[in-house]
Amino acid sequence: MTSVVVKMLCLLLCAVFASADVMPMTDFDLQKVEGKWYLVGFATNAKWFVSHKDDMKMGTAMLVPTQEGDLDLSYSNLKSDGSCWRMTYLAKKTETPGRFVFYSQRWGNDNDMRVVDAKFDEYAIFHTIKTKGGVSEILNKLYSRTPEMVDDLKEKFRQFCMDTGILEENIVMLPQNGECSVAE
Q1: Among 23, 125, 145, 169, who pairs with 117 as Cys (CB 3.0-4.6 Å)?
Q2: What H or E segment, with its residue span, contains residue 7?
Q3: DSSP letter assigned to residue 161
Q4: Is the whole model's pTM more than 0.85, yes or no?
Q5: How far apart are CA 143 and CA 98, in angstroms?
Q6: DSSP line for 147-158
Q7: What is the DSSP letter of 57?
Q8: Number of other residues whose CB lies within 10 A of the CB of residue 69
């Protein structure tokens, strides 16, 4: 039993340490990330996700650069009852272009977010290390400019997630969903 616990702990620690080495893309351009994105892929080994992943659907994100070089993030997701779930963050720039940090009041965690790959007119892959109470979890997101996705992009995201320690069963391509109205 002890050896199993040690192996699990090693696997988790190895994934987090490997994740710390994940760098933002070299040619990140803050202005090109601006605009509306569809959250089409989501991957994490976090316990909450494992029990909720089957209920998750595609949402939207509005990304707006600030004059200071930070990034305003506004997420919305239409719930099954017709109401809208919303969340906003101001991600502060770091010395590394494409890397941002923010604290989530809602979830009580620190977030180290990196834009690791993008063709800004098509897709962007974000890698975030979320830390709460000394425990870190990895969250990878795939954004697309349209709700449709090509198989090559799905495979690229799947491979990146597995390379950062996400179990294959915890990599989800989100089903399409209605959108929240702007006025809500």
Answers
A1: 125
A2: helix 2-20
A3: H
A4: yes
A5: 15
A6: S---HHHHHHHH
A7: -
A8: 12
